[in-house]
Write a structure and sequence with these properties.
12% of the residues are buried. By secondary structure, the chain is an alpha+beta fold. β2 and β3 form a beta hairpin. It is built from 4 helices and 3 strands, in the order αβββααα. Mean pLDDT is 76; it is low at 29-44.
């Protein structure tokens, strides 16, 4: 489970405050003029790689945009946005994903890789129709 220090939690809560002079705020809360009234899970609003996700208000009277602030410690070519966050950025899903949901997805992908490797091994162990002509030519 994701654990953070009290200072980090306090900082993330500060970043998520929707103060009038701020144009962007952390995705911990829904936008103030949003039609979405569902419960949105609490902080943190980052993925497992440390990327942060924000609401951004380009101007008053427009709906807030959703943006990503990438982790600067990871090279740009290695950044991979999880599918759940990609859906949130594109307004396909209304609530941001929880950290638990992201961890479950990582476990699911690891299990899928193991199952695919086992299936490949089963197929490799069976004789193939294409192998028979090669054996005859070699004899």
């Amino acid at each position: 489970m994701f654990m953070s220090s009290p200072f980090r939690t306090l900082w993330l809560k500060w970043e998520s405050l929707q103060l009038p002079w701020r144009k962007r705020w952390l995705a911990g809360k829904s936008p103030p003029f949003s039609h979405i009234s569902r419960h949105i899970p609490s902080l943190p609003r980052a993925d497992l790689a440390g990327n942060k996700y924000y609401y951004f208000r380009p101007s008053l009277g427009t709906r807030p945009r959703r943006i990503l602030k990438q982790n600067t410690r990871i090279p740009y070519s290695d950044i991979a946005i999880p599918v759940q966050w990609h859906q949130w950025l594109r307004y396909t899903r209304s609530a941001p994903p929880s950290m638990q949901e992201l961890q479950i997805d990582v476990q699911r992908k690891a299990q899928l890789k193991q199952l695919a490797a086992a299936a490949d091994a089963r197929w490799a162990s069976k004789p193939s129709v294409l192998d028979a002509p090669r054996r005859r030519n070699q004899e």
